[in-house]
Amino acid sequence: MVLDALGEGLRSAINRLLRSAVADRDAVRELVREIQRVLLSSDVNVELVLRLSENIERKALEEELPSGISRREHVVKIVYEELVNILGSKPRGLNIKPGQLNVVMLVGIQGSGKTTTAAKLARYLAKRGFKTGLVCADTFRLGAYEQLSQLAEAAGVPFYGDSNSRSSVEVAKRGIDYFRGKGFDVVIVDTAGRHKNEADLMDEMKEIARSIKPAEIMLVVDGTLGQQAMTQAKAFKEATDIGSIIVTKLDGTARGGGALSAVAATGAPIKFIGTGEKLEDI
Description:
seven-stranded parallel β-sheet; alpha/beta; Four Helix Bundle (Hemerythrin (Met), subunit A); Rossmann fold; 7 strands; 2 domains
C-alpha cells in the first residue's frame, strides 16, 4: 500500500544518515534530497515538499546542538517533528461522547467513495460496540438512496432516508430525529458529492452542517487524486469546519501522497483509510 511504501522510503533515508561517517552539511543535504525524492514519488504537493525540506535543512544546520545528544540524533528528531506537523503524532479516534447522540457528517467530491465509506465506518463502529445509524442526505445523485440502503443492510446497520424528498437539509434533520431517543451512540450522515466550483452544492453543505450541528465533519478524499486533493481540501475547509479526513482507494494507487497535501491544507488528521472494496476494508 502506498503509505507503507512512503514510510519505508523515509525510514531508508534516515537509516542512510545514521550509517554515514559524520552528520555534516553534505550528509544533511543528501538526506533532504532523499526525503524530497520519496515524497514527490508519492505525489505529495511540491510546495509542501519544499517547505518541509527547507525547515529540515535550516534547523539541522543552524540550530544549536542540544546537550546530551549526537548530531545524527538531532537531525532525526527534526525530521520526525516536521513530519508530525503534517501527519500528527498519534492515531486519533472519532469525537464520540458517551451518553449522547453523536452526529458524524461525511463530505467530499463526487466519486470519492463517500457512500461506501459511510457504510464501512458504520460497520466499524458497530463492531466496536457503538449503536450506529446511517442517514442518506444525498438527494442529488440518482441511486444514492438505494445504494446506501443496500450497504446499510449488508453492514447490519439501521438506515434512514427518503427517496421522494428533494431537500437534503430536511432529510438530514429528519434522519437525526429518527434515531434520537432510541439509545443510538452515533449517526453517520452521508451527503451528496460536490466540487469546489459548485457554489449551490457548497452552500447546501454549509446549511446541512448548520442544521444538524455534527460533532465531527469528515472529509472523504480519493487517494488517486494526488496533488489535486490539496485544492479540493482547501475549498472544503473554507466552506465548513473539517475535523478529520478519510482517505479512500489507497489499495490501488501510487498517488496517495495527495492525502498528505490534504492534511496540510486543512490541519485535520487522517483518522481512517480505505484499503479495498469490502465493508471491512477500513
